[in-house]
Amino acid sequence: MELSHITRTQWFAIQTRYRYEQRIANDLTAKGLENYLPTLSEVHEWKDRKKSMNVPAFGGYLFARFEPTLSNRVRVLETTGVVRLLGNLGQPEAVPELEIESLRQSLNSGARCTRHPYLATGTLLRIQRGPLAGLEGRLVHTANALRLVICVASVGQAIAVEVARDDVSPIEAADISYGDRRHSLESGACEVIEMPARVPSRAGSARMQILGNGSPHM
């Protein structure tokens, strides 16, 4: 009996030429390939005016969802402006669904989002209410705000979304090992560097790796 080969769609990170992100997203859509270009609002200032603009959250990157067959990889790589598919050891590396959903939830929440340096350690917390309810991550404390940092390991970049102190609570000890295990296996999403004084810290850190040091060989 012949065994059928079953593939499934997965998210992959695409590196692009400078300022080609939206053009590539449009071209991939025209090819029937699902894609996601995360954007955030920034205020650009000129001598005579200011203007709020939607810009790519990660300059030079976007994501596409497809079955990782050779033909699909070629279709992506032949798109004008695509530099490479990010991956490991010459093969494209799938981006965990949790990372994409965390980005969507944060950027669509209406909360203020900004770019943030990529982080790698901290104590896991959960948002309990509001548009970010259920999102797990780590907090950074600034002079006048708390921010949840959403890291995307595949591109080695992150965004930070403002959260209310009362909406955040530490994950119970019984859940921490599960949360850390899930993040290490499925997601590089959400890391933190500094905890606010009112949230008790716990020992432990999570190790994360940046994927995407190679391009697929055809």
Structure summary:
This protein is of the alpha+beta class. The chain has helices at residues 21-30, 70-77, 97-107, 173-186; strands spanning 10-16, 34-36, 39-45, 50-56, 61-66, 82-85, 87-88, 91-92, 94-95, 113-116, 125-127, 136-141, 146-152, 157-163, 168-170.
Q: What's the topology here?
A:
Blueprint: E1 10-16, H1 21-30, E2 34-36, E3 39-45, E4 50-56, E5 61-66, H2 70-77, E6 82-85, E7 87-88, E8 91-92, E9 94-95, H3 97-107, E10 113-116, E11 125-127, E12 136-141, E13 146-152, E14 157-163, E15 168-170, H4 173-186
Antiparallel strand pairs: 1-5, 1-6, 1-9, 2-5, 3-4, 7-8, 10-14, 11-12, 11-15, 12-13, 13-14
Write structural notes for this entry:
With 218 residues, the chain is an alpha+beta fold. It has 2 domains: 10-95, Alpha-Beta Plaits; 97-186, SH3 type barrels (Roll). It has helices at 21-30, 70-77, 97-107, 173-186; strands spanning 10-16, 34-36, 39-45, 50-56, 61-66, 82-85, 87-88, 91-92, 94-95, 113-116, 125-127, 136-141, 146-152, 157-163, 168-170. The strands form 4 sheets. It has a 6-stranded antiparallel β-sheet, covered by helices on one side. The chain starts with 9 loop residues before the first strand and ends in a 32-residue tail after the last helix. The model is unreliable at 1-5 and 176-218 (pLDDT under 50).
Question: What are the defining features of this structure?
Answer:
218 residues, alpha+beta, Alpha-Beta Plaits, SH3 type barrels, 2 domains, 6-stranded antiparallel sheet, 20% helix, disordered N terminus, disordered C terminus
